Amino acid sequence: MPKTTLDELSQATAITVGDIQHTLHALGALRYYKGQHVICLSDKVIETHERNRAKARVNIDPACLDWKPPVLSAKERYLN
């Protein structure tokens, strides 16, 4: 079983450690064992994830996106 830390998850996903902890706790997947947090995923959580992953999704080709940030005047930048 691969081992990872919440810090590694945070760095890989750009989600704060606190948000990861809160989400895992809300899912009932975070346990405190021998002085450290341990992620314990039940079979039900894994099955639900696999079902949701199998559902059809809209795939977006990033190469087809054409976005340019708006150019704001100094006054507009100040007001925002």
From TrEMBL:
Keywords: Acetylation, Activator, Chromatin regulator, DNA damage, DNA repair, Transcription, Transcription regulation, Transferase. Coiled coil: none annotated. The keyword Cytoplasm does not apply. Its EC number is 2.3.1.48. InterPro entries: Acyl_CoA_acyltransferase, HAT_MYST-type, MYST_HAT, WH-like_DNA-bd_sf. PANTHER family: HISTONE ACETYLTRANSFERASE, HISTONE ACETYLTRANSFERASE ESA1. Belongs to the MYST (SAS/MOZ) family. This is Histone acetyltransferase ESA1. It comes from Allomyces macrogynus (strain ATCC 38327).
